[in-house]
Specification:
Blueprint lengths: L9 E7 L3 E7 L32 H17 L6 E5 L10 H15 L4 E6 L7 H7 L4 E5 L5 H8 L7 H9 L5 E6 L2 E4 L2 E4 L3 H14 L3 E5 L10 E2 L3 H15 L3 E4 L1
Parallel strand pairs: 2-3, 3-4, 4-5, 5-6, 6-9, 9-11
Antiparallel strand pairs: 1-2, 7-8, 7-10
Helix pairs in contact: 1-2, 2-3, 5-6, 6-7
């Protein structure tokens, strides 16, 4: 079974298709996965692998390890574009997420004041004021919506608690132009169920939801690494470009494509 990608709290820098030279922060265990989604395409594997035994890193540990790495990169004059919260699950599930964001901003300002701070989130925790307040402070508040159709969300993202796409859209819209909506496009099947969020019905519904949210920009991308569901397929770049062109034409929003 495919398992977690990241075995440390601070990792990289790595090259991100969407963000450039990225220093990663994994707020989840380094030997397990904790997430409020269980996406078929998650590069960190399924939640069934369990949370591991290492536990969540403390706020103090994150700050200590992040400062050590930033100081090293600064002293060696190595390039850095972004600090990215990602890893083995949903970063906003960490109970000290807000405080860790504050620490990260302070350390960024000390060592790399021009570097952006990004958070990749599935948007399931936006109803928690401390999470929303923290996300409002970062440079790239990247929030996931893979489909505007509940049946597709249930089949592809597999939320493990009550999830209402309309409510999530309203919460994302509350960030205004500070929000970036990220959508993973793929097709295939899982246990006999066809998965395809690129159909006309899907894109029509996404466009209407994008209009409602009216974010600062949209990111669409496709599979780039092995996925736990082996029957998923990436979307060709020319098809992604055509979808992006249609989204921009009908919404007026900027769309970044990775594929």
């Amino acid at each position: 079974m495919q398992t977690v990608l990241f075995h440390s709290t601070i990792f990289g820098p790595i090259h991100s298709r969407r963000l450039g030279s990225s220093l990663g922060i994994n707020l989840m265990p380094n030997d397990g996965k904790i997430c409020s989604f269980d996406c078929l395409y998650c590069e960190a594997g399924y939640n069934a692998q369990g949370p591991g035994t290492s536990g969540l890193p403390s706020r103090e540990q994150v700050a200590y390890e992040l400062e050590a790495k930033l100081k090293q990169l600064h002293d060696e004059e190595l390039p850095l574009d972004v600090i990215t919260f990602s890893g083995n699950g949903e970063p906003t599930l960490h109970p000290a997420f807000g405080e860790i964001i504050d620490d990260t901003i302070a350390l960024r300002d000390k060592y790399f004041p021009d570097v952006k701070i990004s958070v990749l989130s599935n948007a399931t925790r936006l109803g928690h004021p401390s999470v929303a307040e923290a996300l409002a402070k970062v440079d790239n508040n990247i929030l996931k919506i893979d489909s505007a159709l509940a049946t597709t969300v249930d089949a592809l993202d597999r939320p493990n608690s009550v999830y209402c796409i309309r409510k999530v859209a309203e919460q994302i819209a509350s960030f205004g132009k500070q929000a970036i909506v990220q959508t993973m496009l793929c097709r295939g099947e899982h246990e006999g169920t066809v998965i395809d969020n690129t159909t006309k019905e899907e894109i029509d519904a996404l466009i209407e939801l994008y209009k409602q949210i009216n974010p600062g920009s949209i990111m669409i991308y496709t599979i780039d690494r092995p996925t736990p569901e082996v029957n998923l397929r990436r979307i060709p770049r020319e098809e992604l470009d055509a979808i992006a062109e249609r989204i921009t034409k009908e919404t007026g929003l900027s769309v970044q494509v990775s594929g």
